[in-house]
Each structure stands twice: as C-alpha cells, then as structure tokens.
Design brief:
With 133 residues, the protein is mainly beta. It is built from one helix and ten strands; from the N terminus they run E-E-E-E-E-E-H-E-E-E-E. It binds copper (II) ion.
Length: 133
C-alpha cells in the first residue's frame, strides 16, 4: 500500500469532525470476542462518534465498514501476523485499556459492521452489526 491509498474514498459514508456528531456511542471491546453493544441502529444522514474502549487484557481493534472492507482488513491483519493495525479514517488498533474515537457520517442505507481483525477474533464472532434506517 502506498501513501496515496490513504486518500481512499469510502462507499458507505465519510469521516467527519467530532464537533459535527449528532451523538456518541460508547463501544466496549472485551476478551470474550464481543463488542457491547452488539447491535447499533443509525439513521442515514446521521453523524456518529464511536468511542471504543478495550476493557480486556489482550489487544483488539476496530474496523468500520461493509463486508468487503471487513474481508480486506481480515486479510491485511493475517499478513501482518500479530502486528498492530495502523490507524485509518475508519479503523484503529486498541491496546488493553485504550480508548479511541472515530466520527463517521453515514450516507448510504446498507448493512455495516464494526469488526475486530486481530487474528482469530472476527472468526470467533467479534463484531457489532450496524443497521441503517
Ligand atoms: Cu478482538
């Protein structure tokens, strides 16, 4: 991946400023391969800040996207063999105890997910389903 790829366009919305957020959703990542809440409803057009905290003792991460984006990150993380995910507009790594935020403007009515792609976690069911209404 080159630096130019970081200016990537997303098909499911776009990053926004935290000051533009309509609301904040607190998301907790746990070592039993769950996020809480596990289901999230968002209205098309809404700007949401996700504040994600890793309450476990192992690393987790956060990737917001459709199933295509989830598959890509799963493959990337498998190649990186345990290295931490780089921060991206829609994704970041979460060390134990760490809290990070991303603010997103949802523009498309499609099924999305927040997934953890530390090897093995997504396969174990570590995801939260986002329903756009
Ligand atoms: Cu995880």
């Amino acid at each position: 991946m080159t630096d130019e790829d970081h200016a990537e366009e997303f098909e499911f919305g776009e990053p926004a400023e935290a000051s533009e957020a309509d609301r904040v959703i607190e998301l907790v990542a746990m070592d039993d391969f769950t996020y809480t809440p596990a289901t999230i409803e968002v209205a098309v057009g809404e700007v949401v800040t996700f504040r994600a905290t890793n309450e476990g003792v192992i690393a987790h991460d956060f990737t917001l996207g459709d199933s295509h984006v989830q598959d890509e990150h799963e493959a990337e993380m498998a190649e990186m063999a345990g290295e931490m995910m780089h921060d991206e507009p829609n994704a970041f790594g979460l060390e134990p105890g760490e809290t990070k935020e991303v603010t997103w403007r949802f523009t498309e009515p499609r099924e999305l997910q927040i997934g953890c792609h530390v090897p093995g976690h997504h396969a174990a069911g570590m995801k939260a389903e986002i329903t756009l209404t």
